[in-house]
Amino acid sequence: MTKTLTIDGKTIPFQDGQTIIEAATAAGVYIPHLCHHPEFTPHGSCKLCSVKVNGRVCSACTFPAAEGQDVINNSQELNDDRQKITQMLFVEGNHFCPSCEKTGNCQLQAVAYHLNMLDDHFPLFFHNRNVDASHSDVLIDHNRCIFCTLCVRASIEQDGKNVFAIAGRGINKHLAVNSATGLLKDSDLDKNDKAAHICPTGAILIKRTGYQVPIGQRLYDHQEIDAVSLAHETEQRHGE
Amino acid sequence: MANKIKVATTSLAGCFGCHMSFLDIDERLVTLVEHVQFDRSPLTDIEHCSSDCDIGLIEGGVCNSENVHTLREFRKQCKILVAVGACAINGGLPAMRNFIPLEECLAEAYLHGIGVENAHVPNDEELPLLLDKVRPIHEVVKIDYFLPGCPPSADVFWKFLTDLLAGSQPKLDYELVHFD
Ligand code: SF4
Ligand code: SF4
Ligand code: FES
C-alpha cells in the first residue's frame, strides 16, 4: 500500500524518508522555496516553504512526510506570510533590480512576482555591504546575498571543497570566503564549480556573462517560478 | 467636466522615465482624458494640488527637503496616493548614494570630480537641502498602491487607472509585475 498525505485536499503519495516538499515536487505541487534545492541537504532557513501540517506551521523542506498528514500550502494566509518574508529579504539586503545582472533570471525576484509582491512594506536597511571582484571569473555582490547557504552546501557536498561559510550575527551576518585574505581570488573556487552556479540571487555571478539574454526571453519573463521550478526539479530527480 | 476624476502627478528623486512611460499609453490618452482631468503635474504646470484630487501618482524617492514637502502636500490633497516605479518604492538608483557619506558625494561632484571648474558646493538658499539618505516614499507617508517597474510599462498605468475608474480593486497580473 502506498502511503499518502493530502496537500490542499489533494491526495499525494510519498515514500518513507521523503520530506513534504520532496513528495509535493514529485506529485507536481509547487511549494515556494529559496534555500531548498533537491540536490542538497535541507537547511530550513528561509521559511518560504512554510506550510501548515495538521494545523501547525512547519518548513516543508525539512519536515518528514507522514501517513495521513493534512497539509495546507496554497492558502491566502500562508502566501501573505510568504510575501512578508520575501519583503524582509529585500529590505535586509540591497536589491536594485534594474542594475542587477540576475534580473529576469533571479529566484528571489521570481518568488516576489509569484506572490504578487508590489512593494517592500518595511523600512529599508540600506546597510552597506561589499563587492568582491577579486576572482578572475566569479564575482560576489554581498548586497544580494540572502544567506540561503546553497553555495556553502554545494562547495562541500558536490565540489568537495569548503569555500564558503556564513559568519557573524544579525546585521553583521555575511557570507565568508575561506581563504587567508578572505578574498575569493585566494580561495579554491573554480568557475566550473557547482558553488559558482548555484546562487538563487545575483550574489554570485560568473563574470562576462551578464545581460546576454534579451528582455522578453529571460527565464521568468513569461513563465512563473512554480512552472519553472517543477520542470527543473522533476528533471533533476529523474536524472539522478 | 465637473465629475471628472482629478489626477495629480509629480517626479521627486526620479528621472521622469515613469512619466514618459505613462505617456506611452499613446492614443489611449484621448480616452483617458474623457474621464480624467490633470491637476498639479509637470504635464500642466499647475503648481499646487487642488484640495480634492482623487489620485496622486508619485515618481521617485525622497532625496531633499522639497521632496518631503511635495510628498506631504500630495498625501494631504489626494484621496489615493500611488508609488510609481522602482525609485518611489525602494529609492532606486538614486539610493545607491546611501552607501557613501553625503559630504563625500558632494565633494566628488562639485570639488574634486573630473572637469570641475570653480569648485564649490552649491549653497544658494533657494536650493533645497539634501537628506542624509534617499528614502522610499512609503517611509514618509502612507501609500495606497504601488506600481513597480523601472519604469512601469504603459500597460501598467493603463490597467491600474482603468481598474480604478471602473470602480474595481486594481490588480496587476504576472506579466505586468516586474522590478526592472
Ligand atoms: S538579486 Fe534578484 S532581487 Fe536582488 S537585485 Fe538582483 S534581480 Fe533583484
Ligand atoms: S551567495 Fe547566493 S547561494 Fe550563497 S548564501 Fe548568499 S544567496 Fe545563498
Ligand atoms: S525552502 Fe524551506 S526554509 Fe527555505
TrEMBL record, chain A:
It is found in: Membrane. Residues 1-78 form the 2Fe-2S ferredoxin-type domain. The keyword Zinc does not apply. GO terms for cellular component: membrane. InterPro entries: 2Fe-2S_ferredoxin-like_sf (IPR036010), 2Fe-2S_ferredoxin-type (IPR001041), NAD-red_Hydgase_HoxS_gsu (IPR016214), NADH_UbQ_OxRdtase_Gsu_4Fe4S-bd (IPR019574). SUPFAM superfamilies: 2Fe-2S ferredoxin-like. Keywords: 2Fe-2S, 4Fe-4S, Iron, Iron-sulfur, Membrane, Metal-binding, NAD, Translocase. Gene3D superfamilies: 3.10.20.740, 3.30.70.20. The keyword Translocase applies. Its cofactor is [4Fe-4S] cluster; [2Fe-2S] cluster. One of its GO terms (molecular function) is oxidoreductase activity. Residues 77-116 form the 4Fe-4S His(Cys)3-ligated-type domain. Belongs to the complex I 75 kDa subunit family. This is NADP oxidoreductase.
UniProtKB/TrEMBL annotation, chain B:
Its cofactor is [3Fe-4S] cluster. Keywords: 3Fe-4S, Iron, Iron-sulfur, Metal-binding, Oxidoreductase. Gene3D superfamilies: NADH:ubiquinone oxidoreductase-like, 20kDa subunit. GO terms for molecular function: 3 iron, 4 sulfur cluster binding; oxidoreductase activity. It comes from Methylocucumis oryzae. This is NADP oxidoreductase. Pfam families: Oxidored_q6. Signal peptide: none annotated. Residues 15-163 form the NADH:ubiquinone oxidoreductase-like 20kDa subunit domain. PANTHER family: COENZYME F420-REDUCING HYDROGENASE, GAMMA SUBUNIT (PTHR42845), HYDROGENASE SMALL SUBUNIT (PTHR42845:SF1).
